[in-house]
Write a structure and sequence with these properties.
By secondary structure, the chain is α+β, with helices and mostly antiparallel strands. It has 6 helices and 12 strands. It folds into 2 domains: about 130 residues, no CATH class; about 40 residues.
Length: about 220
């Protein structure tokens, strides 16, 4: 894979995302596939800003419970709008431990935590404030941990850490073979992308077919 574009983020947002990565011990690279982003944007009918994409690219375990997934994002957003999520927000997932729906503006600057319980409270807050809450929750979890993982509470996020943090969109390297799996046709090789990645021309053992990208699963390695 090669870098298609590095996400442009404020230093304050980068610091918080790096802090969450430190606290949860994530090792996965902060990357998203460009084709997945283009497809999600096409289905949603709106562009997603770099701050929004960075939340998904971070892969920290603090957000793991929200079940963030670009491929499921459009469908869940549609369901959330029916449930009352304002149309200016894209759904991120459900708050772990509750039925509250969490959404963010497409630019990723504001977050809404929408209670589905009539007795619940719906909150609007800046994305940095929301991440601060997640950071505080992770710190409390680690403080109760008697293993070596507890040391991550005291790990300092340095300016060098923030500077080196570069979430990015990735695309297959020219000449690199890309394989996907379809429920009916099995494993196939992607020959080319159509309509901005929304459709794929794929060579299967049974022949070459053009399918919607959302109907296949990318195979890594």
């Amino acid at each position: 894979m090669e870098t298609a574009r590095t996400l442009e983020l404020s230093a304050s947002l980068k610091r918080r995302l790096v802090h969450l990565r430190h606290l949860t011990g994530v090792e996965q690279a902060p990357e998203l596939k460009e084709a997945d982003v283009l497809l999600a944007q096409q289905v949603l009918g709106r562009p997603l800003g770099d701050a929004f994409l960075a939340l998904l690219a971070n892969h920290d375990k603090a957000l793991e419970g929200y079940d963030l997934d670009l491929q499921r994002l459009p469908g869940f957003t549609k369901e959330a709008h029916v449930a009352g999520l304002p149309f200016g927000f894209v759904a991120l997932g459900r708050e772990p431990g509750s039925e509250a729906i969490v959404g963010a503006t497409p630019l990723g600057t504001q977050v809404i935590v929408m209670a589905t319980d009539p007795e619940g409270e719906t909150r609007h807050l800046p994305v940095e404030a929301w991440l601060d809450e997640l950071i505080a929750e992770e710190i409390e979890k680690l403080r109760d941990d008697e293993s070596d993982e507890k040391a991550r509470v005291y790990k300092t996020v340095t300016d060098a850490d923030v500077e080196a943090f570069a979430p990015a969109l990735m695309r297959p390297t020219r000449g690199e073979r890309r394989h996907v799996k379809h429920a009916k046709f099995g494993v196939g090789e992607v020959l080319r992308e159509l309509e901005g990645g929304a459709k794929l021309e794929i060579r299967f053992e049974s022949g070459t077919k053009t399918l919607m990208a959302r109907f296949v699963r990318e195979l890594i390695g």
